[in-house]
Amino acid sequence: MIGALFLEKEIIEIEYLIKRELEELLFDLNDKNLNHIVKRAMEERYQILYKILRRFASHQDCIKYMRSYKKNNKKSIDEGNTW
After folding, report:
1. Ramachandran region of residue 8, left (φ > 0), alpha (ψ -120 to 50) or beta?
2. pLDDT at residue 71 greater than cutoff 50
3. Cβ atoms of 7 and 56 closer than 8 Å
4. Measured between alpha carbons, how far is 75 from 2 in angstroms, rounded to an integer?
5. Nearest-angstrom CA–CA distance, 76 and 63
6. Is the pLDDT confidence value at 82 over 60?
7. Does residue 55 lie in a domain region?
């Protein structure tokens, strides 16, 4: 694990950047024409960014970017999420 110190202004910027990237990924993941390999890579990237966001953002902000899964999907909504 690597530690880092951030100024409040830097935290706001990091949070903003991660949120914008998550929004783009959510939009792109809804594209039905994506190759399943590309989609899987995007989902992995989404999970990593979401975990980073949880370290900086409030619980309410994180809920906005939580992915919803279909009932037939074996993944849980809270997979890996510990609040």
Report:
1. alpha
2. no
3. no
4. 29
5. 14
6. no
7. yes
pTM (predicted TM-score): 0.73
Terminal Cα-to-Cα distance of the chain (whole angstroms): 20
Residue at 79 is within a domain:
no
User: How does DSSP assign the chain, residue by residue?
Assistant: -------HHHHHHHHHHHHHHHHHHHHHHT-TTS-HHHHHHHHHHHHHHHHHHHHHS-HHHHHHTPPP--TTS-S-TTTT---
Alpha carbons 82 and 73: distance in angstroms, whole number = 20
Residue 77 has pLDDT above 70, yes or no: no
If one counts the domains in the chain, the total is 1
Query: Which structure tokens are listed for 49?
Result: 């960014």
Centroid of chain to Cα 5: 22
Q: Structural domain of residue 60, as residue ranges?
A: 9-64
78 domain-assigned: no
